[in-house]
UniProtKB/TrEMBL annotation:
GO biological process, one term: regulation of DNA-templated transcription
An annotated Gene Ontology molecular function: protein dimerization activity
GO cellular component: nucleus
Coiled coil regions in record: none
InterPro entries xrefs: bHLH_AtIBH1-like, HLH_DNA-bd_sf, IBH1-like, IBH1_N
Originating species: Carnegiea gigantea
Name of this protein: IBH1-like N-terminal domain-containing protein
Main location: nucleus
Keyword Transcription assigned: yes
UniProt domain IBH1-like N-terminal: residue ranges: 5-72
Length: 217
């Protein structure tokens, strides 16, 4: 696996090429269109970098990002030009309220049965103890069910954040998400470096495209 510095260098090279293709277009772009083109070129450069032959490990998120950009009606044409040929709340308030009420009612019944057990014979105490244990087991089952529900919900959210995540299993999703985060961090570092480097802005015509303005927004 290449170092982070190698990742950044390869990303910058591909990003510059993408920006040059955008800036060489005869079409005039508005500020919003330029912003979209800069962001798209950066994303595609990062995806193609992670999908290049320089890396032995391939990641599905890079394929997903390129595929999504190519199929989108707004970015498809620009993506082809750059690449060239070839939440929800975890639990609703209503559900939470219902669960709290159930717990309150169960607690009240437990308290009532415990008092009865104290007043009556030892056999009654044994019955109450059994019922309490049953309720505790019920709590454990419910807690596990809620935990599974939360994990499933958060997994779905993560799948929506990682390109191509909907088709990934849970094990692959974690690995893909971690690599995607590393790539995004490298992307941001390079973009900030370029935007704050006057020598790069002055010697590369592609940066007349508005990179500095994009990073300041």
């Amino acid at each position: 696996m290449q170092s982070e510095s190698s990742l950044k260098r390869e990303f910058m090279k591909k990003w510059l090429m993408g920006l040059q293709k955008c800036s060489s277009s005869e079409e005039k772009m508005s500020l919003l269109e330029r912003k979209k083109a800069i962001k798209l070129s950066a994303d595609l450069a990062m995806a193609s970098t992670r999908n290049s032959n320089s890396y032995t490990t391939k990641f599905s998120w890079s394929h997903g990002l390129i595929s999504e950009a190519s199929k989108d009606t707004e970015t498809g044409f620009l993506a082809k030009r750059i690449l060239g040929p070839g939440q929800p709340e975890l639990l609703s308030q209503a559900h939470l309220g219902s669960s709290i009420n159930d717990e309150t009612r169960r607690s009240a019944r437990i308290g009532s049965r415990t008092k009865v057990g104290i007043v009556h014979k030892k056999k009654k105490k044994k019955i109450v103890s059994t019922e309490i244990q049953s309720v505790k087991n019920g709590y454990k089952v419910r807690a596990r069910a809620i935990a599974k529900r939360l994990v499933k919900k958060r997994t779905q959210i993560l799948k929506g954040l990682v390109p191509g995540g909907e088709a990934m299993d849970e094990n692959s999703l974690i690995k893909e998400a971690l690599d995607y985060i590393v790539s995004l961090r490298a992307q941001v570092d390079v973009m900030h470096h370029v935007a704050n480097s006057p020598q790069l802005l002055n010697h590369n015509k592609c940066f007349d495209f508005g990179v500095r303005n994009y990073m300041e927004i």
